[in-house]
Amino acid sequence: MIGIVGRKVGMTQVFTDNGRVQPVTVIEAGPCVVTQIRDLDRDGYEAVQVGYGTAKHVKKPVGGHIKAAGLTSVAKLTEFRTSPGDPTYEVGQRLTLDLFQSGDFVDVIGTSKGKGFTGVMKRHGFRGGPRTHGQSDRSRAPGSIGPGTTPGRVFKGTRMAGRTGNERRTVLHLAVIRTDPESNVLLVKGSVPGPAGGFLLIRRSNRGR
User: Fold this and answer.
1) At a CB cut-off of 8 Å and minimum separation 6, what does 185 contact?
2) Per DSSP, what are the bridge partners of residue 52?
3) Are the CB atoms for 100 and 106 separated by under 8 Å?
4) Measured between alpha carbons, how far is 142 from 152 in angstroms, rounded to an integer?
5) Which residue in 86, 132, 136, 195 could disulfide with 82, CB within 3.0 to 4.6 Å?
6) How far apart are CA 190 and CA 11, in angstroms?
7) Contact between 205 and 172 (Cβ < 8 Å)
8) Beta bridge partners of 79
9) At CB < 8 A and 24+ separation, what contacts does 41-47 make?
């Protein structure tokens, strides 16, 4: 299976067979519907476009695009790249959790939580200035950002305060703890990016093969 789209429900914990507590993330994954097949001759690359969920309002171009797949609305459209040796897919085909089993490893892609404008301590883990010797306003300051005379400028990429989070992040090689295809629930080990309700892309991991 190329991959599947879902939403993050939240985190909880389960007990393993040996009685240990395992933190897991609950993901509502699928079902997804294939909405378009990208062709190498026509599009310049090979991929499968899938749609997930429903939305209250759908723009007319999107509605016309997904009509061929038998859908009237969609909450998320995304693509998974394919290779010549991959299985073939058809428009309208449903993708579910049937091919995921306990013990498999997956990569989870999501958008991290947005933190807004933050300082260097929260953004980069700076320790801040001294908390003694009479200083009153340097406890969370970044300190020097470069020499004055030479080079006389601030280098590009210098770690400073700025917008934090709200970026695409991929967590590799997460173990699948449990699957429930009937209720479209997937439990993976550990945490994944984003807030509860955020969209996630789940693909089979190639790491370690």
Assistant:
1) 9, 26, 27, 28, 29, 178, 179
2) 32, 76
3) yes
4) 18
5) 86
6) 8
7) yes
8) 49
9) 45/81, 46/81, 46/82, 46/83, 46/84, 47/79, 47/80, 47/81, 47/82
Token pair for 61: 């171009």
CB atoms closer than 10 angstroms to residue 194: 22
- Contact between 81 and 43 (Cβ < 8 Å): no
Res. 183: pLDDT tops 80: yes
Please give the angle made by the CA atoms of 173, 49 and 36, to the nearest 5 degrees: 155
Percent of the chain with pLDDT over 70: 99
- Strand partners of residue 56: none
Cβ neighbours of 100 (radius 10 Å) = 21
Q: Are 186 and 29 in contact (CB under 8 A)?
A: yes
Q: How many CA atoms lie within 13 A of 172 on its CB side?
A: 3
- C-beta separation of 39 from 31 below 8 A: no
Measure the CA–CA gap between 3 and 6, rounded to whole angstroms: 10
Q: In terms of DSSP H, where are the helices of the chain?
A: 40-43, 60-66, 120-124
CA distance 92 to 8: 25
C-alpha 43 chain-centroid distance: 25
pTM of the full predicted structure?
0.83
Question: What mean pLDDT is predicted for residues 86-115?
Answer: 90
